[in-house]
């Protein structure tokens, strides 16, 4: 009898709490849609359920407190806990996606882009889709921009209709699903659009799929929570781009740093940090004013090395940190400062 081994899948990090029931829904869908015959076939998942993240809607519509600081703290907590990538089950929070991604070295999957990418090569491309989302998501045009650029036709509710949709979402956050007081009004909106040949609804808010069983059954429903869960499963099963040396997993990172990074001793600083953390590879200045680094080392040392790069030498100021695609297959033996 062949003995089964535990697969070295990536660890999923869920940046949740926006709201907790939506976080639970995505977690549940990852479990349900993972092909598994036993416990060990499932993926490792770390959940950071932070309901103290300030309201995304109030930040957008009322100039309220930005959620970015709490989003960053949550993402960094997931990274330090060992997550290999992060998913964020809150559509509205994706307005801060770019700023958040700059603060961690592990990738954050973008559920807005995942939805657009999934739908653009389906029959949905030739049909009208009704957007059910928070007022903040609608106002920010997160889905309008992404889906329209993918050739999809999106219908945005009127102001009075949006007020009902937002109220139904807030009710879900209070735990009201089957007994949601806005269900009848919401179904009237859906039926109105259905009569105008808008036969598909898109969950542009992570609370909306929780209402799907109670919405107009004639409509097709696009569950973006499910699309995010499926993308996380696929990402977790990707082959990790590491080389094994002496039994240690060696990561390769291709990094570009922008800001005040040239003429401040950044390459020499990087060289010293590489020696300190046993990192091999190279660093160079680019003509566009950025600094480029290719680094190989253990995952633990790599995290410390990257943390130092983000800080930089005393006179430097790093304003942008990018992890580029790894196309280098070389196994380096030392660290060099390149002139070009």
Automatic annotation (TrEMBL):
Q: Which reaction does it catalyse?
A: an acyl phosphate + H2O = a carboxylate + phosphate + H(+)
From which domain of life does this come? Bacteria
The family database entries (PROSITE patterns) matched by this protein are listed as: ACYLPHOSPHATASE_1, ACYLPHOSPHATASE_2, ACYLPHOSPHATASE_3, ASP_GLU_RACEMASE_1, ASP_GLU_RACEMASE_2
Which controlled-vocabulary keywords does the entry list?
A: Hydrolase, Isomerase
Q: Chaperone as a keyword?
A: no
Q: Which residues does the UniProt record annotate as the domain Acylphosphatase-like? A: 252-339
Cited InterPro entries: Acylphosphatase, Acylphosphatase-like_dom, Acylphosphatase-like_dom_sf, Acylphosphatase_CS, Asp/Glu/hydantoin_racemase, Asp/Glu_race, Asp/Glu_racemase_AS_1, Asp/Glu_racemase_AS_2
Query: Which EC number(s) does the record attach to this protein?
Result: 3.6.1.7
Q: Where does the record place the catalytic residues?
A: 267, 285
Q: Which family does it belong to?
A: Belongs to the aspartate/glutamate racemases family. Belongs to the acylphosphatase family.
Q: What is this protein called?
A: acylphosphatase
Q: What organism does this protein naturally occur in?
A: Evansella vedderi
């Amino acid at each position: 009898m062949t003995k089964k081994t535990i697969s070295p899948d990536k660890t999923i990090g869920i940046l949740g709490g926006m709201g907790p029931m939506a976080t639970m829904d995505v977690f549940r869908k990852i479990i349900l849609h993972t092909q598994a015959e036993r416990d060990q076939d499932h993926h490792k998942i770390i959940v950071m359920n932070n309901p103290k993240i300030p309201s995304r809607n109030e930040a957008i519509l009322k100039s309220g407190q930005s959620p970015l600081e709490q989003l960053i703290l949550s993402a960094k907590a997931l990274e330090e806990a060992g997550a290999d990538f992060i998913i964020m089950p809150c559509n509205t929070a994706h307005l801060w996606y770019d700023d958040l991604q700059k603060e961690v070295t592990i990738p954050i999957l973008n559920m807005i882009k995942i939805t657009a990418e999934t739908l653009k090569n389906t029959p949905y491309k030739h049909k009208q889709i009704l957007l059910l989302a928070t007022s903040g998501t609608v106002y920010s045009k997160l889905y309008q921009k992404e889906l329209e650029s993918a050739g999809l036709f999106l219908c945005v509710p009127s102001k009075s209709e949006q007020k009902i949709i937002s109220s139904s979402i807030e009710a879900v956050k209070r735990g009201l699903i089957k007994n949601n007081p806005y269900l009848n009004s919401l179904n009237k909106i859906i039926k109105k659009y259905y009569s105008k040949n808008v036969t598909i609804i898109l969950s542009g808010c992570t609370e909306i799929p929780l209402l799907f069983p109670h919405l107009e059954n004639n409509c097709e429903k696009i569950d973006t929570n499910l699309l995010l869960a499926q993308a996380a499963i696929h990402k977790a099963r990707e082959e990790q781009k590491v080389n094994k040396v002496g039994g240690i997993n060696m990561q390769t990172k291709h990094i570009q740093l922008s800001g005040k990074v040239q003429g401040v001793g950044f390459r020499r600083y990087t060289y010293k940090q590489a020696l300190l953390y046993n990192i091999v590879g190279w660093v160079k200045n680019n003509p566009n004013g950025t600094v480029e680094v290719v680094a190989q080392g253990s995952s633990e040392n790599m995290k410390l090395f990257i943390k130092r790069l983000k800080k930089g030498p005393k006179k430097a100021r790093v304003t942008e940190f990018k992890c580029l695609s790894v196309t280098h297959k070389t196994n380096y033996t030392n660290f060099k400062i390149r002139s070009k």
